[in-house]
Write a structure and sequence with these properties.
Shape: globular
Radius of gyration: 21 Å
GO cellular component, one term: Golgi apparatus
Largest sheet: 3 strands, mixed
Subcellular location: Membrane
Structural class: mainly alpha
Order of helices and strands: HHHHHHHEEHHEEHHHE
Protein name: Transmembrane protein 115
Number of strands: 5
Helix content: 55-70%
Number of helices: 12
CATH superfamily of one domain: Rhomboid-like
InterPro entries: Rhomboid-like_sf, TMEM115/Pdh1/Rbl19
Membrane topology: Multi-pass membrane protein
């Protein structure tokens, strides 16, 4: 797979996101480099840029970092991963949702995942009394947005597969979030990567809340279907507990006017009420299925076609082309 094939026909917003990530990351590295050059050789300079990255104790002086920190990767490895993931995921989601909706999704998940992570770091500071949490722990990176992307893919195409190594290894889209969560837990245990852990596990929750309650699709706000309920993101043996807790939380949010109440939604969360034929929800799901089928057919128009023996592959790492399989 060549770089030319990877960046071919990339929509405008995805290009802008990739460019912003590269620009902010390089600018921060220039800042850190010049700071090291001007400092005492015996002093230790942390790889921190408080004017782009989010420094918990400095955020009141640089509130814009609640957004800019998302597009700042502190090393070449994570920057490369972010660029590749943005090219793949942003390209697909922008074509599925449109530039405006993708921009809102990135904006919401980026800012709120940073805010909640920042609050968590502050709690750690007050509990421990260690001011390193304020001035030595930097919040940055696109981990929160990327975990929210996985929720979006679970919503759009849960049964599709992502193929790597020429199709010798593949994984269903709906299982990717579990892999990301496992990696975040391992990173927390081995590397004490508290920021990465928080961003991943906060980002997907914020992405789910936005799609579940606020995102408009075919004129209908949110997706209240039982297949997208919060318990579906957890192992099956936890579904009764998660469903019970989620309904309590949902009821409290309705009373606080944070979201609209709907009796069919509560029943759907418990798995007791399928959409009635002819209802608004059933019609929305029917139109969504038709729209996704049309989208897959449109994305499948490329010079190279997938082999017939692999009809359910979403992305092939060797060819970087979506398949024409129905969701």
């Amino acid at each position: 797979m060549t770089l030319k094939n990877m960046v071919a026909n990339v929509p405008s917003l995805t290009k802008a996101l990739v460019s912003t990530c590269i620009l902010f990351s390089l600018a921060s590295q220039v800042y850190v480099y010049r700071l090291k050059q001007a400092s005492d050789p015996e002093s230790t300079i942390l790889n921190i840029c408080p004017f782009i990255g989010l420094l918990p104790g400095f955020v009141m002086y640089a509130p814009w970092t609640l957004l800019t920190a998302t597009f700042y990767e502190s090393n070449l490895f994570t920057l490369t991963i972010s660029v590749v993931v943005l090219l793949f995921c942003g390209k697909y989601l922008e074509r599925a949702w449109g530039s405006r909706e993708l921009f809102k999704f990135v904006l919401v998940t980026a800012i709120f995942s940073n805010i909640v992570t920042w609050f968590g770091i502050l709690v750690s500071y007050y509990l421990s009394g260690d001011d390193k949490f304020l001035y030595q722990v930097q919040i940055n990176g696109m981990s929160g947005v990327f975990s929210a992307f996985l929720v979006a893919f679970k919503h759009l195409i849960p049964e599709h597969r992502i193929a790597i190594l020429g199709g010798r290894l593949s994984i269903r889209v709906k299982n990717l979030l579990g892999v990301a969560t496992a990696i975040s837990i391992l990173s927390l245990i081995v590397f004490q990567a508290i920021v990465f852990y928080n961003l991943v596990n906060i980002g997907w929750v914020i992405g789910w809340v936005y799609i579940r309650f606020f995102k408009y699709q075919d004129g209908i706000q949110g997706d209240r279907s039982e297949t997208f309920a919060i318990q579906t993101f957890f192992p099956e043996f936890l579904h009764p507990v998660i469903g019970f807790v989620s309904n309590i939380v949902y009821g409290a949010l309705v009373k606080l006017n944070c979201c609209q109440g709907s009796r069919p939604f509560v029943d759907a969360e418990l798995g007791n009420m399928p959409p009635a034929p002819g209802s608004a929800r059933a019609e929305a799901e029917r139109r969504r299925a038709l729209a996704l089928k049309a989208l897959d057919m449109r994305l499948a128009k490329s010079p190279a076609t997938e082999p017939a023996s692999r009809p359910d592959i979403l992305f092939d790492a060797e060819q970087n082309t979506p398949s024409n399989a129905d969701p």
